[in-house]
């Protein structure tokens, strides 16, 4: 049994609605259901009764709800106590980031931050938005850099940073590889590699919207989730891909990156997000630095 399982259980126990609970935790309903199943298996009992119209707690579910509240409150208090312990050797900032920001934003930001705050220890965690937000809400992270979901819980504070434009990744042997710019309309009929929308909705929608606005259909040759995998598939000649511009910083033999006309006006949003009610001077110092140095991400 893990604390994350209990957090998922408590969200459903308080809302009695799997969809609302998943939205509260900013995670996919399938991931929420998997956590509940793992908890039920670990405890050897059913915690909910489900029908097409309603979700209800079982008798054991009611008992666990109160115990879970106490346990999670105690766990959060312990985490906060050690986090704020004045005897800690170094002040700590735990930063979560999507892969694109890890490539494009974080190197310059951390270099500048360390110059001003050399005693701060920074822990980095790279993951997808859907996994970073629950960790932020549970107190395991202090600040995250994400593609914001369509709806963001009101408990979060947020600061828009930029719209990262798309760039075309193509095999080095492709006829367009020596060009500086390409029109979207020129990609008609060419095989494209796309991420699954459930895992990378902004990146998926960017490609679809660029093609739609150009009045052409996307010819999908392969679906893949991870950005590094997509670029490797491009190198193998499986197809072309529209990826976030910072992805061009990957050093990948056999791949060229070419600018897309019109992509600058239709980028993928990047935001800094934190828990609005949590006091954290170190986090606030990093946010202030971002505000003072927009050249880091513009």
Overall description:
Helix 2 packs across helix 3. The mean pLDDT is 89. The strands form 4 sheets. This protein has a 5-stranded mixed beta sheet, with helices on both faces. Strands 8-12-7-11 form a 4-stranded mixed beta sheet. With 298 residues, the chain is an alpha/beta fold. It has helices at residues 3-15, 18-25, 29-43, 59-83, 99-104, 106-116, 129-137, 201-213, 227-235, 281-292, and strands spanning 48-50, 55-57, 92-97, 121-126, 143-146, 156-164, 166-171, 181-183, 191-194, 219-223, 241-244, 255-261, 268-275. The longest helix is centred in the first third of the chain and has 25 residues, at 59-83. The protein contains 10 helices and 13 strands. It has 3 domains: 3-83, Winged helix-like DNA-binding domain superfamily/Winged helix DNA-binding domain (Arc Repressor Mutant, subunit A); 92-163 and 270-296, Periplasmic binding protein-like II (D-Maltodextrin-Binding Protein, domain 2, 3-Layer(aba) Sandwich); 166-266, 3-Layer(aba) Sandwich (D-Maltodextrin-Binding Protein, domain 2). Helix 8 links the parallel strand 9 (191-194) and strand 10 (219-223).
What proportion strand?
A: 15-25%
- Summarize model confidence as the mean pLDDT: 89
Q: CATH superfamily membership of the largest domain, which one?
A: Periplasmic binding protein-like II
Rg over CA atoms: 22 Å
Q: How are strands sequenced across the largest beta sheet?
A: 4-3-5-13-6
- Characterize the main sheet: 5 strands, mixed
How many helix segments? 10
CATH architecture of the largest domain: 3-Layer(aba) Sandwich
**N/C terminus separation:** 43 Å
CATH topology tier name of the largest domain: D-Maltodextrin-Binding Protein, domain 2
Stretches where pLDDT falls below 50 for ≥5 residues? Answer: none
CATH class of the largest domain: Alpha Beta
Q: What share of the residues lie within helices?
A: 40-55%
Can you tell me the number of structural domains?
Answer: 3
């Amino acid at each position: 049994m893990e604390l994350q399982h209990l957090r998922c259980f408590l969200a459903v126990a308080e809302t009695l609605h799997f969809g609302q609970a998943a939205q509260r935790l900013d995670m996919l309903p399938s991931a929420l259901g998997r956590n509940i199943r793992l908890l039920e298996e670990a405890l050897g009992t059913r915690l909910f009764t489900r029908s097409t119209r309603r979700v209800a707690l079982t008798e054991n579910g009611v008992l666990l709800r109160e115990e879970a509240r106490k346990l999670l409150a105690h766990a959060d208090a312990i985490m906060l106590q050690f986090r704020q312990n004045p005897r800690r050797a170094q002040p700590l900032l735990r930063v979560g980031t999507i892969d694109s920001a890890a490539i494009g934003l974080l190197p310059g930001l951390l270099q500048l931050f360390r110059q001003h705050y050399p005693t701060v220890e920074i822990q980095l965690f790279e993951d997808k938005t859907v996994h970073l937000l629950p960790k932020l809400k549970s107190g395991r992270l202090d600040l995250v850099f994400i593609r914001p979901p369509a709806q963001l819980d009101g408990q979060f504070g947020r600061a828009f940073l930029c719209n990262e434009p798309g760039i075309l990744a193509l095999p080095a042997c492709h006829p367009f590889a020596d060009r500086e710019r390409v029109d979207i309309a020129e990609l008609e009929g060419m095989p494209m590699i796309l991420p699954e929308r459930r895992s990378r909705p902004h990146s998926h929608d960017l490609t679809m919207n660029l093609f739609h606005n150009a009045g052409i259909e996307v010819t999908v040759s392969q679906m893949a989730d991870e950005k590094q995998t997509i670029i490797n598939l491009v190198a193998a000649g499986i197809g072309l891909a529209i990826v976030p511009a910072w992805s061009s910083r990957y050093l990948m033999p056999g791949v060229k990156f070419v600018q897309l006309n019109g992509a600058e006006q239709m980028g993928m949003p990047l935001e800094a997000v934190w828990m609005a009610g949590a006091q954290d001077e170190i986090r606030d110092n990093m946010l202030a630095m971002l505000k003072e140095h927009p050249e880091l991400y513009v």
